[in-house]
Amino acid sequence: MRAVLQRVGKASVSVAGETVGEIGPGLMILVCAMQGDTEAQADQLADKTSKLRIFRDGDGRMNRSVLDTGGAALVISQFTLAADTSRGNRPGFSTAAPPDDGERLYLRYAQRLRDIGLTVATGRFGADMSVSLVNEGPVTIWLEV
Length: 145
Hints:
Blueprint: E1 2-15, E2 18-23, E3 26-32, H1 39-51, E4 55-56, E5 62-64, H2 66-69, E6 72-77, H3 99-116, E7 119-122, E8 129-144
Parallel strand pairs: 3-6, 6-7
Antiparallel strand pairs: 1-2, 1-3, 1-8, 4-5
C-alpha cells in the first residue's frame, strides 16, 4: 500500500458540491491499495502513519506524531498513486488493486486509524472528489509498505 501524508491546518473533501469529510489540524492522507496488498499491510501502514513524527514539538523540531498532537486524519482513496509512468506520456494503473480490494483495504486503513485513537473523516471511494487543504510547513511524506 502507498500513502501520501500532508500535514494540514485543515482539510475537506466534497462530492458534487456536498462536503463529505473535513478535519481541523492533522493529516490529509491519500491512500492507494496495490495488487496483492493485504489487511496486514493496511494495518502496518496505519500504524506507521499514526506514529510518524512530523509535527513540531515545543522546540520547533519535528518530534511529535498526529496521535501526540490530538490531530485528526482525512483519508481519501487515490488509485492514481499506482501510476506507472515508465513508458510514454500516458500513465498506466494496472498495478492498482481491483476496485473491490481497493475499497476494502482503504476502509480497513481508515478503521485501523480509528482503532488507534484518531478522529478520522473520509472521502467517498470511487467518486469524483474535490479536495481542499491548508498544507502546514509544507510537510508532505510518501509511505509505502
